[in-house]
Amino acid sequence: xxxxxxxxxxxxxxxxxxxxxxxxxxxxxxxxxxxxxxxxxxxxxxxxxxxxxxxxxxxxxxxxxxxxxxxxxxxxxxxxxxxxxxxxxxxxxxxxxxxxxxxxxxxxxxxxxxxxxxxxxxxxxxxxxxxxxxxxxxxxxxxxxxxxxxxxxxxxxxxxxxxxxxxxxxxxxxxxxxxxxxxxxxxxxxxxxxxxxxxxxxxxxxxxxxxxxxxxxxxxxxxxxxxxxxxxxxxxxxxxxxxxxxxxxxxxxxxxxxxxxxxxxxxxxxxxxxxxxxxxxxxxxxxxxxxxxxxxxxxxxxxxxxxxxxxxxxxxxxxxxxxxxxxxxxxxxxxxxxxxxxxxxxxxxxxxxxxxxxxxxxxxxxxxxxxxxxxxxxxxxxxxxxxxxxxxxxxxxxxxxxxxxxxxxxxxxxxxxxxxxxxxxxxxxxxxxxxxxxxxxxxxxxxxxxxxxxxxxxxxx
Length: 461
Ligand code: TYD
Ligand code: MG
Prior knowledge:
The protein is an alpha/beta fold. It is about 25% helix and about 25% strand. It has helices at about 75-80, 100-115, 125-135, 150-160, 185-200, 275-280, 325-340, 365-375, 405-410, 445-455, 455-460; strands at about 5-10, 15, 35-40, 65-70, 85, 90-95, 115-120, 140-145, 165-170, 205-210, 230-235, 240-250, 260-265, 265-270, 290-295, 300-310, 320, 345-355, 385, 390, 395-400, 415-420, 435-440. Strands 8-7-9-10-6-11-12-13-14 form a 9-stranded mixed sheet. The chain has a 7-stranded mixed sheet with strand order 17-18-16-15-19-22-23. It has a 3-stranded antiparallel sheet with strand order 2-1-3, with no helix packed on it. Helix 4 runs parallel beside helix 5 and helix 7 crosses helix 8. The protein is globular and about 75 Å long. The relative contact order is 0.09. The chain binds thymidine-5'-diphosphate (TYD) and magnesium ion.
């Protein structure tokens, strides 16, 4: 029987302390230390009976990485091309965002050709069945269970040999030898480690669902990020039906990819053409709106940037930004004022990226700057114009990556004109007909001139 001891653990970073403290010295967070009961390892480390084996790297033989298709291309892409055999994937997100729905839906494809075990610690078997019926999921190889005992699940993995296991959620699981309550940091960490060992030893792919809790009451998935192979975040505004899946960590692929889904009455639907979705419902003839071509991983996406510049009633005007970095907005306002002579001093400024999208690439600067200019001067920007480029502190436009993909996507979505940094023009293939007029601008002032020249007179007012 292992010895137990009381420790204080930071719910943010997992650092342990023998005594309570107001601040965690490791990550600097305040009020995050919680009392936990943990087990002390017995035995002498030097007397280990395990012998280390070593291999020369050239002699390590391994079969090609096996990946399972989940039936959802959007999820497969975020995973790096499918679910890797024997990997541990953590899917986290706010309660009610659609984690259980997504994982139950992929069981339809996964379960049609292999054995899949879906274990829920939150719902009874009847409830899972009801949800599966509603989603139209019934696969030959899908087994469901309602259980919260970690050891029992791992034993079933050993004897039943499923190829994929889904644990919904890690916060409900418990190891009976630990005294802490399910959902506590120690339980969550130890259960995850146990599932990790089982996944690697038995070559079973495991999905773990993890809830994020804003006030840190229960163990957030932050401490788990080090343990698992892949961390996916499912995000979106619960009021809106769109959901975005991102990889925050991936040992088997890029972390830049996103997957876009829409929550409908019969579950999640993949959005294969996010540009069309994000551009639908665009208002015509309104100032302060620009269309940006941004890269999300390897995929170009057209997004709408809206700026509202309104006379301020406050001594310190308001700057509000949704989907775009607040500090970056302040920098762009300063650059517009200093380098192009547009003063925003007496105006409130609001920036919004449509569709709940969050844009953090520098190539979005020009679109935001032009939306601010359009909003301030009340000049309407043509609906057929797409823009992208990074704005430097000198007001210059800097080259951006993936210019060809961006221009092609703009042309595909029916845009006729495109303003890009002049220095990016050399990246374009001269022999290719992009089907869109491309205008290069060296700085913000030139971009405003180009805009003036390409906007029809009757539309500009
Ligand atoms: P759920 O997958 O239970 O969320 P999580 O596991 O992340 O907590 O999703 C719950 C929400 O999704 C709930 O608010 C209802 C909605 N929903 C639909 O709109 N359509 C559906 O077909 C399903 C199953 C759920
Ligand atoms: Mg759930």
